Amino acid sequence: MTRFSRFVLRHRTAVVLAWLVLLVAGGASAGRLSGRLSHDFAFPDTAADRANHAILAEYGNGAGTYPLVPVVVLPGPAGVDDPALGRAFAAAAVDPGLRVVSYASTGDRRFVGADGRTVFGLVFTPPTRGAPPRDYAARITAAMSRALPPGATVNVTGLDELSTVDNTGSGTGVLTETLIGALGALLVLVFVFGSLLALVPLLVAAVSILTTFLIVLGLTGISDVSFIVQFLVALIGLGVAIDYSLLLVTRWREERAQGHTGDEAVHRAMASAGRAVLLSGVTVAIGLVALVVLPVPFMRSVGYGGMLVPLVSVLVTLTLLPVLLATAGPRMEWPRRTRERPTGRAWRAWASGVVRHRWLAAAAALAILGLLAAAATGIRLGDAESGALAGSARPAAAAGLRDLTDAGVPSGVLTPIEVLVPEGARPPSTVDAYATVAPAGTRLLVVLPRHEAGSDAGKEEIARVRDAFRDVPGAQVGGLGVLQYDAEHALYGPFPLLLALIGLVTLVLLTRAFRSPLLALKAVLLNLLSLAASYGVLVLVWQDGHGSDAIWNVPATGAITFWVPLMAFAFLYGLSMDYEVFILARMREEYDATADTRTAIVEGLARTGRLVTSAALILFLAFVSLATAPSPDIKILATALGAGILLDATVVRSLLVPATVSLFGRWNWWLPGWAARALRIDTLRPDADRDDDPSVPALSGPAGSG
């Protein structure tokens, strides 16, 4: 790292010019990115995906989207056979590509409510081909209203309509969210640095984000990239780039406070903090491998985009930032002229207290995380329930759902199952809730389930329908709910193996970095515990509604969007490890200098406590900005990321990490000789650990103390 630092400073002019060109190019092209991103959530090579493609090939609509559901309330029950009602539902086909299924077209009484005067239909729309969905609801309402008999009302609902919040027009965009996050970060940085140096991490973040946008724009030319990537690049890039800059700048100030000046202070900071930045960036990228290897295009694109964020941020931090510090750093210390105090009294006192009461600290932290992790065991994956969405939906969509449920129509009709069968094939007698559309060559059966597809009961209905049609030659079961049912298995089927591989790679990487298998293993296990606790927060806040209604005016969803936990894992696994790396790397450094575990804990936490807290607060504020996005799914993801970072930086790193390091004593620093040779680790032989419990046996090995 020192050699790399010297290389960068020898070519400082070229480094600045290169990043300046990328900054300008990224800024000039950022406006084009949004229009090139995909809104497609395809899951290829699943049975439902093949069925949906077959349905779209025959009919050109439905399959991969939920239908719109116009709900008509007539002035009296005798009107369901009124020809005007049939004309009204026919008028719902406002475009040639729409398909309308209703009581008028099928004669199926399941389209009529128990009150005899509430009638609904299903309007299947064509696929959006990766573009935002078209808004048909207003046009359908206007067309049907003109044809309905006097006194009748119509409201268009549907799961997608209910998911469109009433205040979409006031929702924030990527630029606004980034500016909100940047403002919060600036306030924290001003508090930390008290000088113009607070602007330096923001500059590094701007270069990192715009450069990543430029690369993502290039990727859109060869592959579909999900629209989610723009949010993650902007806000996670903001937090990560500032975190890395904060670590390096803080260490540079510390080296200057110890009397090192000029380029030497930069080299020394790069040798320690720069190494931690590199390790952290690689760890974040490793976590995102879980998304890249999945056979799901939109998740894979999020994985690629997510991996670019830390890698570009690391590159900017380790090249541009050293040049800025070496050339303009001392002058940017204005107006703060006092010498940097490397440790904080409050953090030193806190660390000493945790060491003294290590059993109590560990028990308290484990109790908090354990209770939240226990809540996570009740997580249910699927779409938010329609009743939960209605609270923040457009008034017409909410009114349509209310008309349906008041008439005794089950909400499962919002998520119908579509079954494509050859013409002449007899459907099984066990499936009787369907309407039939029969163009030449095929029949399309529209099954009306009682329960919504995302619920546990809805998933059981999907399984029963599939079993019922298994013996019908050529039958293919599709629909968006069935696709999500298959997608859930496709995403989480290989997850245990992915988790094991990622954990193993991280364990090897951290063992080499910390020169300790115990510290590495503890870091991985605590990270997984922190992740489980963040899932518990999701269950409590969103699934059970303890906070979603108060904060976002969204009632309990009853389920968590099926892709959110996996995506949260991919990002949090590495982001949470940042603080573990920052703290343990400094503890390892202090132990190598003093050969004393107690001193290593107290000094390590005293020197990194304010840094970790500030970095976590900045990243948390970025996720608060992300939560202002209008999409409920993005809000849920932001909650998972924000909760994970907050728990990790407070409960885990401030309590559990120092407590467990203190409990394990000299075992923290032991490294078997065979492991040192296999990992090519240059080992140290510090003196005996003076403060450790003498009852602990002496440990052998290159990095042990005996």
Question: Could you characterize what this model shows?
Answer:
Helix 10 runs antiparallel to helix 24 (597-626) and helix 11 (262-287) packs antiparallel against helix 20. This protein has helices at residues 2-10, 12-36, 47-59, 83-91, 103-106, 137-147, 159-163, 174-193, 199-219, 228-257, 262-287, 289-292, 297-327, 345-356, 358-376, 386-389, 395-406, 456-469, 480-492, 495-514, 517-543, 548-552, 564-594, 597-626, 632-664, 673-678; strands spanning 69-73, 99-102, 118-124, 153-157, 417-422, 434-437, 442-447, 476-478. By secondary structure, the protein is mainly α. The two termini are 31 Å apart. The chain is built from 26 helices and eight strands. It is 61% helix and 6% strand. The strands form two sheets. It has a four-stranded antiparallel sheet with strand order 2-3-1-4. A four-stranded antiparallel sheet has the order 6-7-5-8, sandwiched between helices. The model is unreliable at 167-171 and 685-706 (pLDDT under 50). It has three domains: 67-157, 2-Layer Sandwich (Alpha-Beta Plaits); 194-342, Multidrug efflux transporter AcrB transmembrane domain (Multidrug efflux transporter AcrB transmembrane fold), CATH 1.20.1640; 344-389 and 480-689 and 696-706, Multidrug efflux transporter AcrB transmembrane domain (Multidrug efflux transporter AcrB transmembrane fold, Up-down Bundle).
